[in-house]
Amino acid sequence: MPFSDNEVLDKILQSMNNYEGPVSQETLCNHLKTPPNRTVIRVNTVVTSKEILKDDIEKALAVQYDFKGVPAPIVQFHSKIDDILVVECNQKTEKVEPIYPHVMVGLACAVAVLRGANVYAPGVTAIPSGVYIGDRVSVFADILGQCKRGWNSEYQGQKFFVGNGLLVQNRKDLFTVAVPSGLAINMIEPLFDCPSIGDILHEDTIGGIQKGFLQNLPSVLCGHALNLQSHHLILDLCAAPGGKTTHIGCLMKNKGKVIALDKSVAKIKRIQENSTKLGLTNITAFAFDSIKAYIKIPENQLRGVDIITVPPIPESPPFHPYSFDRVLLDAPCSALGQRPQLYNPIRLKEVQSFARLQKKLFVAAVQLLKPGGRMVYSTCTYNVSENEEIIDWALGKFPFLRVVSPDIKLGKPGYRVGRLTEEDCIAMQRFGCPASCGSQNENSDAIGFFICCLERIISKSV
């Protein structure tokens, strides 16, 4: 079971059964433990085309799968989204069974392996003595994070098998240096046959600039829902690690200006690194608390008043109200929709705490949005209180906001709660509810995700 707190699982199931139809606990748990069957690659349209990147990936996958002795998966264009490629992975490799010895890796490393990655040195926590370069090993996730680094015997704690591979670094190189680096295990028999796209993209560059970027399908839709123009001034609140930020930069053709905020200095560095990898120069990132990102004015001045002239934007936050044409609020959330999830220690009380933070961030987003401007609110959780109930609250607090439908819509409608109309719910997008029939489509195969697009109505009053 992926959640340590049964109440969290019960909460997800209750909302799914109320709004989606019957979903069993077993179906949901199996769904959460498996990676999406489709790998999505966002094309860096600033430096290349989808046709060129498709050709590059097809050639690289042909080599990768020739080594495995099976046909390579097909790389396809998407019928509605013009700047992504979709690789439909093969199904679970049923014949893969664990062997000895067992190598332990951290939970994050194991999740990456399930989505097609090899094992890199920082993720390895334990290798039994007597194992050498070239040996076949089984890779296991340390579910509870209790395996001591450098452990030299078979680990007997709770673990999850993710596949078999060939060891390419020995114990000494992995555990006697402060910061181990490089490839540690080449995964020749992963539990799920997801292609190793990350390494391909890292090597497929133009002048050192990556041609593509791995991103979940619903995340790509957030940028498109903003309906961006190259002259816009954009604010991305809670922007790390920068996947959506860099997509915005690409959609704006590396023009205009994108401001990215996050509280963490380390996370801001990630945004800057990803921007550099993709050759984007229209992104400026600040380590700043997004709740405090606006210069406060009396709240009654926000209601029904449209400011035509806005002071020049400061060089750094906080910013004047009404400063931005577009605002993205990909809010911190309980992340209950992430896949694969092998173990999540979150408790119900913590899940229930996110809505309070999300409302504070929503206030900041609304304060900074221009009249006539558009904002997108998104989360990677199934939790209704972090999704539709936040929008219901916002429409009550800010009557000058309205829910609008994006140009590209792939998700299921939102859930009807509170004052939300049927039209509102149809405009929203929900992803990742497991298909009860077992046949996964583009929506149910995705991570659990919620998107709502809103516009600030231009009032006639002053």
Automatic annotation (TrEMBL):
It comes from the Eukaryota. Keywords: Methyltransferase, RNA-binding, S-adenosyl-L-methionine, Transferase. Pfam families: Methyltr_RsmB-F. One of its GO terms (molecular function) is RNA methyltransferase activity. InterPro entries: MeTrfase_RsmB-F_NOP2_cat, MeTrfase_RsmB-F_NOP2_dom, PUA-like_sf, RCMT, RsmB/NOL1/NOP2-like_CS, SAM-dependent_MTases_sf. One of its GO terms (biological process) is RNA methylation. CDD domains: AdoMet_MTases (cd02440), PUA_NSun6-like (cd21150). SUPFAM superfamilies: PUA domain-like, S-adenosyl-L-methionine-dependent methyltransferases. S-adenosyl-L-methionine binds at residues 238-244, 262, 289, 330. The active site is at residue 380. PANTHER family: NOP2 YEAST -RELATED NOL1/NOP2/FMU SUN DOMAIN-CONTAINING, TRNA (CYTOSINE(72)-C(5))-METHYLTRANSFERASE NSUN6. Belongs to the class I-like SAM-binding methyltransferase superfamily. RsmB/NOP family. This is Methyltransferase NSUN6. It comes from Daphnia magna.
